Amino acid sequence: MDSQDYGRIERAMRYMERHCLEQPSLDAVAASIGLSRYHFQRLFTRWAGISPGRFLHCLTLQHAKARLAARASLLDTALDAGLSGPGRLHDLFVTFEALTPGEYKRQGEGLVVHHGFHPSPFGECLVALTERGVCGLSFVDEGGREAALADLRARLPRAAYRAGPQRTAPVAERVFGVRGGPETPLHLLLHGTNFQVKVWEALLRVPAGERTTYAGLAHAVGRPGAARAVGQAVGRNAIAVLIPCHRVIRTMGLVGQYRWGAERKHLLLAWEAARHAGETGAGPAAASA
Q1: What angle do CA 29, 47, 55 make, to 5 degrees?
Q2: Which of 33, 34, 88, 131 is most buried by a 10 A CB count?
Q3: Is the overall model pTM greater than 0.90, yes or no?
C-alpha cells in the first residue's frame, strides 16, 4: 500500500471524528475521500484492522460516556496488575529494558540506530531500531522528515545513525498492520531517567482500550503528589503507541494534549478501543459496515 492510501485512511478517520454525532453513512465517508463504498470498506478494514462502522461506533458520545464511567473502578485494577516488565498492547506483547546510567550519560555512544519512514493510518511515522530493541517511534508532522530525524538524533546525539527501512518495516507492520496468531515479544530500549522509565513502565500496565490519568500514574509510581512531573515524563516518551502515552487523560475526563497532536490522540484512542472491542467480541457488530 502506498502513502496515498494511508493518507486516505487518515482523512477518513478525521472525517468520522468530526461528524461522529451525525452518524454519517458509509457512502458519505467514502465520498469524503473520493472512493466508492466498496473500495473504501475493503481499504479501511484491511489497514485499520476494524470496519468503518465499528470505528464510528467507538467515536460516539454514548461510547465515550460509558468508558469514562467505568474508568473510576477500572483504574486501580489496571495499574495494580503487577506486570513489572512485559506489557500487553492489544495482541502485541512488549518487553523492555532501559539504558544503564552510564549509557544514559554517554548519550548513545556506541549504539548504532537504524531508522526508516513508513506509512501508517495516522500519517507517516519514523521507526528507530538498535540491536537491543526499538528506541523510537514518532509521527512526521509539519517539519517533515528532517525535523523528525533531528528530534531522534537530539535524544541520542552520540549514536551512529543509518537509514535502514528494510529493518524497521516489520516493526511498523507489527504496530499498525493486521496481525493474527502468537508473536515473539517486541523489545524496547528506553532512554530516560530512572523516574521517566518508571512512568513509562506504569504506562505499559494500562490495558488496551482503557485510560488512566496523570494523578493515577503518579500514584502507580509511588509519587502521589507528582502529577506534574509525571506529565513531563509522559511528554518525553519517544516511542509512540508502543508506550501508550495516548492513554493518559486529565482527571476530569478531557483528552488533553499529546506530543504528536491532540487530534491524533483522539483518533488513536478510538482506533485502539475499536480494535480491542473487535478482539474481545465486546460491543455491537457494525451494521452496514
Answers
A1: 45
A2: 33
A3: no
Tell me the pLDDT tens digit for each residue of 221-235. Answer: 999 889 999 999 999
pLDDT in tens, 209-224: 777 888 888 988 999 8
Q: By 3-state DSSP, what share of the chain in percent is helix, strand and coil, each rounded to 5?
A: 50, 15, 35
For the annotated catalytic residues, the residue numbers are: 245
All residues at 6 or more sequence positions from 105 whose CB lies less than 8 Å from its CB, including other chains: none
Return d(Cα 261, Cα 203) in angstroms, integer.
Answer: 19
Beta bridge partners of 117: 126
Query: How many other β-carbons are positioned within 10 Å of the β-carbon of residue 228?
Result: 10
Give exposure, 33-56, as e/b (b: 16+ Cβ within 10 Å): bebebeebbebbbebbbbbbbbbb
Residues 205, 208, 213, 217: what is their CA dihedral angle, to the nearest 10 degrees? 10
The Cα 168–Cα 96 span in angstroms is 17
Distance CA 233, CA 211 (A): 17
